[in-house]
User: Fold this.
Amino acid sequence: MKKLFSFIKTYRIHAVIALIFMFLELGLELLQPFLIAKMIDDGIQQQNIHHVLRWGIVLVTASILVFVSGIINTFYAAYTSQNVGYDIREKLYTHIQSFSLSVFKQFQSSSLVTRLTNDVTQLQQVVFMGLRIMMKAPFLIIGAIVMSFFVNAPLAMFFIITVPFVFFFLIWIYKKAAHSFSFVQGKLDQVNKIMRDNLRAIRLIKVYLRKHFEIERFQGASAKLQRQTVSAFRLTESSTPINMLLMNFVIMAFLWFGSIQIQTDKATVGEIVALINYTTRILSFLSIFSMLIMVLSRAKASAKRIFDVLDTTTENISTNHDTFKNLDYIIEGNIIIDHVSFQYASAQTLAVKNISFKVRSGETVAIIGETGSGKSTIFQLITRLYECSEGDIFIDGFNIKEIDVENLRNNIGFVLQESHLFTGTIKENIKWGNPLAKDKEILEATKSAQIHDNIIKFRDQYDTLIGQKGVNLSGGQKQRIAIARALVRKPKILLLDDSTSALDLQTEAKLLQSIKKMECTTLMSTQKISTAKNADHILVMEKGEIADQGNHDQLIHRSTLYQKIYESQNGKE
Amino acid sequence: MFKEMLKPFQVSRQVLKKKENEELTSIKVSEISNTTKNMSTTLEKLWKLMSEWKNQILIVFGLVIISSGLGLLGPLMVGLGIDHYIVNFDQLGLLWLLLGLALIYILHSFTVWYQNILMIKTSQNIIFKMRSVLFEKLHRLPLSFFDKRQHGELMSRLTNDIENVSSMLNSSMIQFFSSVLTLIGTVSIMIWLSPLLTLLTFSVIPILFIGIKIITKHTSKLYKKQQYNMGVLNGFTEETLSGQQIIKVFSQENRVISEFKEKNKAIYEVGFWAQTIAGFIPKLMNTLNFFNYAFIACIGGIFILYNIGGVTIGIILIFLEYSRQFIRPLNELANQWNSLLSAIAGAERVFEIIEEKEDRQDKQTYKEISSIQGEIIFSNVSFSYEDDNSEVLKHISFTAKPGETIAIVGPTGAGKTTIINLIACFYDVTEGDIWIDGYQLMDLDRNSLRKQMAFVLQEPFLFEGSIRDNIRYSRLTAKDEEVIEAAKLAGAHSFIEALSEGYDTKLKEDGSGISQGQKQLLAIARAMLVNSSILILDEATSSIDSITEITIQNSLKRLMQGRTSIVIAHRLNTVKNADNIVVLKEGYLVQQGSHEQLIEEDGFYRELYESQFSYC
Assistant:
């Protein structure tokens, strides 16, 4: 929560203005019973119409002042809270973008989205409430007590006894309640999980006749939820009646002792009316207080989730541009992988072990191997999404650690295993690769990627919307658009990470042929022999190591693993 | 500093202008507001569900009436006490009054406490029943129901909507009822005490309503915009965060950040005005309250002095208290009204499911079968979905002799899955017949038939729990040894043993910890455990690495042994080993025969074979 204040600090002037007007409002509200008491005692009791009118005008003026200060308070409070929300969102998003991939992977992207939206909204709400009522409740209670001392000190002593008691009672209740409501949440999650399971696995449940088993499981969880909910509420529901009773007894005390004081002229009727008035006010603010405790504890959780992200630091990959070789263009596209090893932070074993190979300019090299054999890792190391744990990678003779990351990536066309496309038109998606691409260049790229013919069959052609709102593309179409997106950069180095898996044989062959014409160094990983077969050089990977390398004809005779893969795909046993 | 202070005034007021955003008009109203189609019938249904606890609910309502009455009586007695005893120095009278008051206060607190507790207990019982009814209903619904609906939407009915109903029953109902009662009670006492002062007190109501109306007119529009902007930002972050690697690879960080800022700014501007204007409502209430106080005190004072309408100090005190007590329920009613509406809308959506047409239930007359050979005959079978006239399957006929393997191939949408759905009795044929061991499928008891079948579906669904329990899911009575035996046959035993806790390894909900291929092996083990004569297999399309693929192929082969197998085939091996291949295209059976036969014919199969199956 402390860190939240650092965000508010920028808007301290506005926050202070909001607070000033809140206190003005508060002061006027506290003054009101006092003024009414004056009116009763000086005006009505004394039968003085002028005093009644005078205090009446004061009261009406005060109510106008209350309105004006309330409006101004809202205005500045909204300004502050919305700005704080804006700033936190922006800072979070920018910070997330600066994460290296390994840091990024520590968070689930869905959880990052909730942090960016729901959690920030929570904090924003707390700031807004903070500037409006949160401070008001305790101050009103304290203020009401102070004012009642002015009105009648001996009688006001009753507050000193009861209010702290009520206060600590409330805190105690809500501490306990927060605990048992978190249990309720857990039980609710359990119930919803079974619901979700049943929806997703409905076929399985039907075919294995597990209906009664599931119903029993569900009712068990549901009954636990029921019991937990009732017991959690039993606690909180008792707080209001108890507080109400206590404060009502205070009213009774005022009536009794007040009447004794009136007889000895130590108190007036107006004073008693004022004291009763203060009591009912304190009572109504006590109920706001319990709400505040809940809101605050929720905000605390949100703040923690947000600052968990903001406090995560990322090793800065490209710090000082000057010290780097400024490689504007990769001229040749030679790649040398030199004794490279890498281990993911979360893993116990090396993902790639001591790998060395060379790719000459314009060559096509295929990497074949099982899932988890380290193919994708090599690509991520070349593009410096991750840094090698050991060994070096050289491009055109430069160690990639000495090349500015942005420059490095700008010169590489990388097609990922999962063809992630963004909401927008096909053209916009391809332009992601190169925002400056002209229509002619886009056309070249789509033709090479063998997707042009499909695109012009859509009604809106290149302006067809894709993504959540747009048309559904098949896996193969998505892959080819992703390839076009990389090709439009006219890269000297092209990395294809199993990105032709959904293409049929002829299309894939045509695509690989047109890539060959582009004369770029191509490194591709695959599980299909048919894809690997035509490469200049094939690396067979197994468990992070290069098990064998050569061309198709050599490997088919030499490598048992290659043979095994070949046979399984060729339908022989 | 002065410049800083003026900044809030410079926030763009564009959003307040009348002109609707073009995109905004395209948002469906139903997405934003909870519109109820038929409130009274929904309430009726809800009441029917609740009627089991009729007595408890009546007690609660009785208690609410008592507690509201006592709540009103308190301030009245205080006022009377001041008027009759304090002003007249009657200590004894005051003592009696206080004793009465103490009784009222204690009773009031007690009834409030008891009514709330009782209501929560009752409402949780009702919700428990509602959940159970809904859940059991789900299992009686035909599969077509689930195929037609999005999971997300269904889930939200099963969770959010029920939660809405639950919170309404928990508190909103009591609050609503007691607000109405308090309002009526307050107004009647006020009129009884002084009609004139009551009239004056009410003079603020029109101001209140006009004020709220003006404010909500602005805010409802702004809230819609805000929701829309939030949705846009949500979609954008979701997309860019899940595509984080692409952004990095193409060095587009700055671009997405600046796009984010733009969307963030839109939220900020709308949010500022929405919050500011909506924030006026409590301030307006507060002010009117304050004003009312001043008004009542001042006018009341004048009335006392000029002896108009029998107003006394006590009456003023009561009025002051009541004027707040009547503005508060007004405020609460407005709040409760919204949550009441959204709960009723939620209940309506829940009832929609509860009233869905159920699946055909097995009748007593249906034949139960205990063991079958596994002969399956499709004779001139056609099928179309109820709400759709176009036929998905058209006059399909083929025969599977006991122990044979039938591979079904064809492009997406050819009707492959429908054939499986028909055999598993997920859907009923529209025309033609399916015969199992000479019995017509329609005449068989479905549960007894399904007991004769083993299934391996495309997505190997695993539950959170141990591997042992997951395998055992197909036969809950299976002994541990049988589970292990099945796993061994499925070729899953070795990898399970290699896990740190073996068969007791807990699988997580997202299935992390084991690979896709291993999940399929577990699904096969599950099928192995069933003593079935028919196997329904929907091969996974997702690419699994070649080595695991070989293991899976081998264990499937063992699974198919001695079982009549109907397989939606995606693997070349499966097709080659099948006794009969059924080739589907657009719902028609275009070819059938063995792989060798079909490859000879110059037909659709060869085309399929070349594009789908050949790897080399």
In short: The domain at 35-355 of chain B is CATH 1.20.1560.10 (ABC transporter transmembrane region fold). Confidence is low (pLDDT under 50) at residues 19-34 of chain B.
